[in-house]
C-alpha cells in the first residue's frame, strides 16, 4: 500500500460530506529519517499499523456484498485484503529481523473509524463504507500512484515540516534501513531471532510471497513488494510478483480497484494514463447492504441480537489479531490458525449485515446493521481466553 495523488479523475474522498464525527488520528513518527535502531522500530510499528488500517474498510466493502453477487468485485477486494495481510507479515519480519517486537493484539494498534488517512496532507476520511462508489474512491486515494517526495532532509523537501504521502513514508524507511546498515554494519542491524521469521510454509495465503528478512537485500525486497503491489512497478499498472516470485502477472491494488470503479478491465497494453480499455466488468452497484459509515455498537439497543452479533464480531476479530501477534512474536506456524478465524468472521458478517438497522430512522433510509471494528482490551482478553481453551491451544504460546 502506498499513496501519493489522483490519477484518473476519480472523486476526491475528502469532499464526501456524510462524515460528521471527529476523525481518529493515527500517531505518526517524527518527520526525519530514523536515526537509530529504536527509531527504526518506531517507524516499522507505524508501518504495521498503517497496513492494518485499510483491512477493516476493505473487508467492509467485501462483506456488504450479498452472497453470490458482484463476484468479480468480491474476488478483487478479497485478493487485496490478503495482500495487505501479506504486507503486515513482511513488515513484522523486518521488525523482527532488526531486533524489534511487533505489537498487534492491543487496543492501541486498532484504529478507530472513521479515521484520518495518515501521512497525507489532505484530510481524507477512511470510513467503514458499504460497497459502492464512495468506498472505491477512498480505496483509490489510498493506493494511488504518482510522484513520491524524497525523504526528510533532502533539499527538495527542505520547506516541508510534515509527511506528504505514504509513499514518502516508505521511502524514508528504506533510506533509514540503508543508512543504519552502513552505520551499524549489516550483521549487527539484522541480528534478530531467525526463528521469528514467517516463511511460505507458515503464511495461510500460501505461495512464495512471504519470505524471511535476514539482511539488507531481503529487507529492501520486502519494502519493494509492499510498495509495488499497491501502486505498480516502474510507472506501469502491474506489480512485480511475476519477476520476483515467478507468479502470474497481476495489476496492482490501485488498478484492481480502478477496474471496478470504471467497470472495465485493463488490457495488455494499457497504462496508468490510458485507464482500462479491456473487457467490460459487470458491476451491480445496487447489490449491496447499505450501512452507516459511522456505525457504533452503542447505536444498537442493549441486549438486542444485533448488538450481541456486532460485539461478538469484534471479539472474533480480536482473536484474529491475537493469532497474528503470536505468529509474529513466537511460533510462525500458529498463523495457520488464522484460517478458521477468518472463515468465522465471514460467516458472522453474512449474518450481521443482512439485518435492517434496528433504529427506525436509519432503517427508513434503507440502512443495515454493520460491524464496527471497535476492538477494546476486553475483546482481546476474551479472545485470549477463547484461544487458550481451544483444542490444540498448547501450540499457541502465551
Automatic annotation (TrEMBL):
Residues 44-261 form the Iminophenyl-pyruvate dimer synthase domain. Transmembrane segments: none annotated. Gene3D superfamilies: 1.20.1260.10. Pfam families: Ferritin-like. It comes from the Bacteria. This is Iminophenyl-pyruvate dimer synthase domain-containing protein. It comes from Streptomyces netropsis. The lineage of its organism: Bacteria, Bacillati, Actinomycetota, Actinomycetes, Kitasatosporales.
